[in-house]
Structure formats: structure tokens, C-alpha cells
TrEMBL record:
Domain ABC transporter: 10-240
One GO MF term: ATP hydrolysis activity
Compartments, as annotated in UniProt: Cell membrane
GO CC term (a single one): plasma membrane
InterPro entries (alphabetical): AAA+_ATPase (IPR003593), ABC_transporter-like_ATP-bd (IPR003439), ABC_transporter-like_CS (IPR017871), ABC_transporter_ATP-binding (IPR050763), P-loop_NTPase (IPR027417)
Name of the protein this chain belongs to: ABC transporter
Length: 312
């Protein structure tokens, strides 16, 4: 008998986590639906990892309500953990074992039969694009390959919910894109993803819906496009000036945009029409060393909400 709430994978109300006097998560509400890719976007120290550890049912909450897969982690932690896939920030693979052995050992740990583990390992190595490295020791793999293997291993038990904590930190751009492609494929098979990240491009690529976290609280929630529409403008004009010339320029561009952010190395003019604003700046005799018109991103949303950038 399926109830209405079968499609709610995670539900948190006023969820909090304290470490002594320090409040890492200060009462947040989160609602993750089946089949969506849900993101926690924010800088390091925003409370994302503490939230993920509570959802993963490995860290008890200090306050509030939490249901994961319809169960209470305090009472049914083992049952919840059996149905989750968890990809931690640091790969925790057995480096002396081969790629295939890592998958076998993990599958047996979940109590799968040898035949089932063998078949599953082949399928997952193909998914992770590691079939040709099956018998190589993990030590010999690149960072991107190790991360794909960690993700493959987290799928051994066919989880309903996959938790990924900063999945592409430390990877080069090519490895990141390959990983995003694998995660996108997973989503199309119906796996629910929860991702923490401090990369706005990752959140824009992967998340149907996300919350912006800052200082243990949720600052905003929505789809990437909704958040950009709500907190930013369609375009941003970036102006960089020679040393000593930015300060006097600020006053002269204020009325050219809906708002102006002054960063140490550049001015950001938020406007619906960046090229027009640039022409007006030139008409006023302003001579920036360089200029760039771009679309607004989640980075701009974060700057608007918190007054600072995501990656400090």
C-alpha cells in the first residue's frame, strides 16, 4: 500500500546540529522528492556536510525532525543505511585491491551472493567507464577514475537515494564533466540524488532544485533558473580597471545598472542589457582595462544573498 508520502525521500523540519557551543546547522527545512537531483550549495563551513551526515544517518541530530525514506534515523539507522548510497568527500577505497575486488568486497559486505556481486561489478565498471582497468590496483588510477569507482561502489546495493558530498572537488575540468555525465545518467534511471557543492556550475548542471546554505541556515530555495530570476538580473557586465581607477569609477556607473557589486578586482553591473550599459560607460569616458558581458549565474545569487563569493 503506497501512501502519498512515498515520493518524499527526505523530510526535515527545524533540523539542527550542535557540536558543544557551536551550531553547525541552525534549524533548516528540507523536502526532497523521489527522482530529483537536490543540491546544497554554499561555501565550506556552511553546514552542508553536517546536514549530509544527519541524512546519511551516521550523525544524530541535535534538534528538529528528520525522516529519511519514511523512517527516523534515530530508531532505524541500519535500515536506512542499507538503502542509501554514500559518496564521501574523500575517496575511501582499498588502494591495494583492484577495481573489481573493491566492488566485490563491498557487495559481499551488503550480503549479496557471489554471482550477483560478479554481475553487478561488471555492470558498474561499465557504467564508471573502468572496464579496461578492472584488474588494475586502485593506486594506479587517476583522481577522476577513483571518484567514479567510489560512485560505482556506492551503487552496489541499488540504493534508492544517493548522497554525494562535494563530488568533484580536486578534479580537473575534463574529469568533472565526465563525472557529471555519469550522474546525469543515474538520474535518468530514477535514482534520487542529493549533492553538496560549492561550485555554482556544478549546481546549475546537476540540480533540479537546490537550497543556498550560509552559516548553518538556508538563505534561498528554488531551481537554478528560478533563483537567478529572483535574485539577479539577466546579464552582468564585469569591468576591470587599471590600479587606482576603480574607486572613482564606482560613482559614475551606479545609475547604469539595477545594482553594482564592488569586488577587490572588478565591478559587477547587474542589468538586463550588458552591452548597452558598456556603451554608456564608454560614452561617459570610462576606460576599463577589460570588460565582459555574461549571463547571471548562481555565483551572483550567492553574492546577492550573502555579500561574498562562494569560493573564498
Amino acid at each position: 500500500m503506497h501512501g502519498v508520502d512515498d515520493d518524499v525521500m527526505v523530510e526535515a523540519k527545524a533540523l539542527a546540529k550542535r557540536f558543544g557551543e557551536f551550531e553547525a546547522v541552525r534549524g533548516i527545512d528540507v523536502h526532497v522528492r523521489r527522482g530529483e537531483a537536490f543540491g546544497f550549495l554554499g561555501p565550506n563551513g556552511a553546514g552542508k556536510s553536517s546536514t549530509m551526515r544527519m541524512i546519511a544517518s551516521v550523525s544524530p541530530r541535535s534538534d528538529g525532525e528528520l525522516k529519511v525514506l519514511g523512517m527516523d534515523p534515530d530508531r532505524e539507522g541500519p535500515r536506512i543505511r542499507a538503502r542509501l548510497g554514500v559518496v564521501p568527500q574523500q575517496d575511501n577505497l582499498d588502494t591495494e585491491l583492484t577495481v573489481r575486488q573493491n566492488l566485490h568486497v563491498y557487495g559481499r559486505y551488503f550480503g549479496l551472493s557471489r554471482a550477483r556481486v560478479r554481475a553487478k561489478a561488471e555492470e558498474l565498471m561499465e557504467f564508471a567507464q573502468l572496464t579496461d582497468r578492472a584488474d588494475d590496483e586502485v593506486d594506479s588510477l587517476s583522481g577522476g577514475m577513483k571518484r567514479r569507482l567510489t560512485i560505482a561502489r556506492s551503487l552496489v546495493n541499488d540504493p534508492d537515494l544517493l548522497l554525494l558530498d562535494e563530488p568533484t572537488t580536486g578534479l580537473d575540468p575534463q574529469a568533472r564533466h565526465l563525472l557529471w555525465d555519469r550522474l546525469f545518467r543515474l538520474k535518468t534511471t530514477g535514482v534520487t540524488l542529493i549533492i553538496t557543492t560549492h561550485y555554482m556550475d556544478e549546481a546549475e548542471q546537476l540540480c533540479d532544485r537546490l537550497v543556498v546554505m550560509d552559516g548553518g541556515r538556508i538563505a534561498a530555495e528554488g531551481s537554478p533558473s528560478e533563483l537567478i530570476a529572483r535574485y539577479s538580473t539577466r546579464e552582468v557586465l564585469e569591468l576591470r580597471f587599471p590600479p587606482g581607477e576603480q574607486e572613482p569609477a564606482v560613482e559614475r556607473v551606479t545609475d547604469l545598472a539595477e545594482r553594482v557589486e564592488v569586488l577587490p578586482d572588478r565591478l559587477l553591473l547587474y542589468t538586463a542589457a550588458g552591452e548597452a550599459a558598456l556603451e554608456q560607460a564608454h560614452a561617459r569616458g570610462l576606460r576599463p582595462a577589460s570588460s565582459l558581458v555574461r549571463r547571471s549565474t548562481l555565483e551572483d545569487v550567492f553574492l546577492r544573498l550573502t555579500g561574498r563569493s562562494l569560493v573564498e
